[in-house]
Design a protein that fits this description.
This protein has 14 helices and 17 strands. The chain has about 400 residues and is α/β, with parallel strands linked by helices. The structure holds pyridoxal-5'-phosphate (PLP). Pyridoxal-5'-phosphate binds next to helix 5.
């Protein structure tokens, strides 16, 4: 089918909830994608921070093919081998205690919120617990996840949302303290805000929130769905802060393309929250998804992905900083490792994204004025150079 026919068919039958870019992607190789007309794109979007290993990784593809031929789905009524192994790897990488596998990031957030409310309920038997979330955050589109997403534009048409949510200013400890009441059961935040515009948590802020949580037995939920899995140069972004969450959420690069998420609990939370009957999912933790997770962790280890991100991430930062120096309309670079944003002033960031696409480069936006880069973690310095060249051409 021709590109325009494919686009027309989608628009005719698929509910219009996205304004898609006029590109029909067909296949990928390494860090490059190809559209149906054979045009090549250097991919600095990775399907929104998902495809960390690049396209066509043989080990990954073969592991999935083998699992498809063996067993794809069982339900959670029975055990399967990949689930335990994927869980073990996630626990060892995080130093936390127990995992619940979901099918998306949003569902991981739902589970984290439920675990936090159950923890508080077991403590005092009350059912009016509050959760503090951050302005400009993004945690997903379901009613629970949307309720803790600090963006009224996303929320307003869907009210009433779940109750007991209070919002604070990210990177402002006093503003978090001001929202604490005797009913507070959790604080939820992204370690690096993604959709909101690439804002890393300040170390003093995150440590201050952690201290506050410990003092009052409030659970700290860190959303690592976008910034986790090696993207910032450590397996999970919080590991650089010396601050451990009570609950962590993962998704996006966790399965590198197979839909899978997880919420991960520390010992205290695992032992005093969800029990049989409290939470469930038909697909969650299925053998295919968990074979993907298991293989992703194996490849991360074998190919030293995190170390690679530290090196190439530092190089990307340096090249982006030079752009900010050079162009007046670039106000700032924000980010860590391979989650980077350029703040664009005085012209629409969307136009640059479209121009870049014409020049064979995929980048995306965040917030209203940020050019976002979340490339596959396997990009090389030469790919960074090529990206800079294509981006400058698009300015
Ligand atoms: C993408 C994202 C989510 C939602 O994940 P889905 O897989 O789209 O449901 C939640 N939190 C953060 C930080 C995200 O980037």
């Amino acid at each position: 089918m021709k590109a325009n026919e494919i686009m027309e068919k989608s628009e005719q039958y698929v509910l219009h909830t996205y304004n898609r870019y006029p590109v029909v992607l067909d296949h990928g190789k390494g860090v490059r994608l190809y559209d149906v007309d054979g045009r090549e794109y250097l991919d600095f979007a990775a399907g929104i921070a998902v495809f960390a290993l690049g396209y066509g990784n043989e080990t990954y593809n073969q592991a999935l093919k083998d699992q498809i031929d063996k067993l794809i789905h069982t339900s959670n009524l029975y055990y399967n081998e990949p689930m335990g192994e994927a869980a073990e790897k996630l626990i060892k990488a995080s130093g936390m205690d127990k995992v619940f596998f979901t099918n998306s990031g949003t569902e991981a957030i739902e589970g984290a919120l439920k675990a936090a409310r159950k923890y508080a309920y077991l403590k005092d038997g009350n059912t009016d617990h509050e959760i503090i979330a951050m302005n400009h955050s993004f945690h997903g589109r379901s009613m629970g996840a949307l309720s803790v997403t600090g963006n009224t534009h996303y929320q307003d048409p869907f009210r009433p949302l779940i109750g007991g949510i209070r919002f604070a200013e990210f990177n402002n400890l006093d503003s978090v303290k001001a929202q604490v009441t005797e009913k507070t059961c959790a604080v939820i935040m992204e370690t690096v805000q993604g959709e909101g515009g690439i804002y890393p948590a300040d170390p003093e802020f995150l440590r201050g929130v952690k201290a506050l949580c410990e003092e009052k037995d409030i659970l700290l939920i860190l959303d690592e769905i976008q910034c986790g899995m090696g993207r910032t140069g450590s397996m999970f972004a919080w590991q650089e802060y010396g601050v451990e969450p009570d609950i962590m959420t993962c998704a996006k690069a966790l399965g590198c393309g197979i839909p899978v998420g997880a919420f991960v609990l520390n010992k205290k939370t695992a032992e005093h929250s969800l029990v049989p009957g409290d939470h469930g999912t038909t697909y969650g933790g299925n053998p295919l998804a968990c074979a993907a997770v298991r293989t992703v962790f194996d490849i991360f280890e074998k190919e030293k992905i995190v170390e690679h991100v530290q090196e190439v991430g530092a190089y990307l930062e340096q090249r982006l900083n030079a752009l900010v120096e050079k162009y007046d309309f670039l106000a700032q670079r924000r980010g860590k490792g391979l989650i980077q944003g350029l703040v664009v002033t005085g012209r629409p960031v969307g136009e640059i994204v479209l121009k870049a696409m014409e020049n064979g480069l995929l980048v995306i936006t965040a917030g209203t004025d940020v050019l976002r880069m979340v490339p596959p973690l396997v990009i090389s310095k030469a790919d960074v150079d090529e990206m800079i060249e294509k981006l400058e051409k698009s300015f």
